[in-house]
Amino acid sequence: MPEHLTAAAAAVDAVADIITTATQHLAAASSEGGRISVEKLDQHQVVAYDLAHAASAVEGCRVMLDYAGHGELESMVARAFIADAIADVATRVIARDELWGVDLATLAPGRPFVAAHRSPGFLEELAEQLPRHGTGPIHLSDDFDLVRETFHRFAEEKVRPVAEHVHRTNADIPEDVIAGLAEIGGFGLSVPQEYGGFASGGEHDYLGMVVATEELSWGSLGVGGSLITRPEILTRAIVKGGTEEQKQRWLPRIASGELMVGVMVTEPDYGSDVAGIKTTATPTDDGSAYRINGVKTWATFAGRADVLMLLARTDPDRKAGHRGLSLFVVEKESAAGHSFAFTQDAGTQDGGGKIEGRAIDTIGYRGMHSYEVAFDDWLVPAANLVGEDGGLGKGFYLQMEGFENGRLQTAARAVGLMQAAFEAGLTYAQERKVGGAGDLVGKPVFDYQLSRAKLARMAALIQAGRQFSYNVARRMAKGEGALPAAMVKAYVCRAAEWVTREAMQLHGGMGYAEEFPVSRYFVDARVLSIFEGADETLCLRLIARRLAEQALEE
Ligand SMILES: Cc1cc2nc3c(=O)[nH]c(=O)nc-3n(C[C@H](O)[C@H](O)[C@H](O)COP(=O)(O)OP(=O)(O)OC[C@H]3O[C@@H](n4cnc5c(N)ncnc54)[C@H](O)[C@@H]3O)c2cc1C
């Protein structure tokens, strides 16, 4: 291994040691009777949150150490990322070392590596490569290059031309985008082959979804990037817990794009704390159906959707918590626009139900619209309970199955969005000439040291996010995914805020103008750390908690 990579690996190991020690410290402070107590863990939220991000950064560093082996450019990209990541961890620990229970001196031997690779000179050298190589080579097999090309072309030809209009007018996603995506097989990527899709049950499925989502999000987060995420969430829940008849009934129509999907978990009073949801599903007297009552919110695409994956309480005893929840596939008519209202035939014995939705106006992520939806005695056949009677009380676990993948897809969405922002920032910086002193008078923004360092760091972060997502996709295929998926989601979505911010900043005033897509990238990026598990909740309740539990077990 070249000397600078040995130094990089040693510096990463030192950070990993800090994480291990801090996790043991946190676990000891948060345990009760040999188990992690959430109440106790909550007394250390500030440390737990930072620890979760720091541990995620270390995972990313390890992935980039492998990536570095591909060549000199890859090594430079990796080293730039690793040096920044270590510096970030250090700032989280500084003056909180006692709370972490660590000695910051552990990081001291890595200082020369970090200094060398955060130096303006090194970053400028890396920046020299950007006009030709962008964020760096991707290194996936030819198969995936084909997937990438297909979805990239679709994003370029079908998504980008309408993205601006949809955003500025808060319009619906044009039907020909949906039809076109169906035509290239987008909706079938996660559906098993025996049910009309392309998934064959291996690494290929997970990576294929990530690559496709990344490219669609490069086109637009609102118009393209999220279209295939929802079908995947429902597909995975049905594959895991549905009856054979349910699989036959829904999966082929999801794969073909005939059924658009909405996901309804969040409620006005319960977002992060899903186990508490109040929407009820009560069986009718003859047991042939369930009546749904309650309010769901933030249900993206619920208007256009033909089916809604609904998490509802089937056990009226609220003390049952998440064990009282079941998952339903609710059929409805598809509706365009920003509101809908449907009534079931009041003439029949079991009719008279209502469903009403209104889109919540948002600063970005426009096109699919996210709705608040009220159910009033809406009748759903018992055959639509995922798993039928065997699925009673399993809804929470089934939706988690879908959401683990949703998190990986959200990281892929962040990578695609960052890539778009990076390209916009780089192009603008090369074209825009600004005043300066000496040789730099009237030179492009890109020629200045600060811009170069910025773009080099952006490129490194994007490539790290991409490689980290691929790595997690492979691990998910092996069933090792829950913790890594949460880590990659939390880390890469935060990164997208900084990258889109800097891309906007490189545009100066024009970055704030709606006519430049970079302003859209900036507002779109903000949602990534909120949905599919708010950053804080994900870090505290999932990442830090699991790490602490693992530390107790060791
Ligand atoms: C554009 C958009 C689209 C969405 N699409 C969907 C969808 O299709 N389907 C769906 O079901 N949901 C969807 N959501 C909902 C999303 O998943 C929730 O907004 C998210 O889970 C957070 O829940 P909340 O909004 O209730 O926030 P809250 O739970 O009220 O959280 C508020 C703040 O408190 C923090 N917080 C919460 N608990 C803790 C704690 N224990 N300790 C410390 N901090 C805490 C959170 O991190 C957050 O910062 C969408 C949201 C948005 C904005």
Please give a structural write-up.
There is one protein chain. With 554 residues, this protein is an alpha+beta fold. Among the domains are: 3-118, Butyryl-CoA Dehydrogenase, subunit A, domain 3 (Up-down Bundle), CATH 1.20.140; 261-394, Butyryl-CoA Dehydrogenase, subunit A, domain 2, CATH 2.40.110. Helix content is 56%, strand content 12%. A hairpin with a 2-residue loop joins strand 1 and strand 2 (35-36). The two termini are 31 Å apart. The mean pLDDT is 95.
Keyphrases for this structure?
554 residues, alpha+beta, Butyryl-CoA Dehydrogenase, subunit A, domain 2, three-stranded mixed beta sheet, globular, binds flavin-adenine dinucleotide
Brief summary of the model shown:
By secondary structure, the protein is of the alpha+beta class.
The CATH first-level class of the domain at 261-394 comes to Mainly Beta
The dominant shape is globular
Sheet of most strands: 5 strands, antiparallel
Arrangement of strands in the largest sheet? 4-5-10-9-8
Task: Output the helix-strand order.
Answer: HEEHHHHHHHHHHHHEEEEEEEEHEEHHHH
Fraction in beta strands: 5-15%
Judging by the overall fold, what is the CATH architecture of the domain at 261-394? Beta Barrel
Structure ligands: flavin-adenine dinucleotide
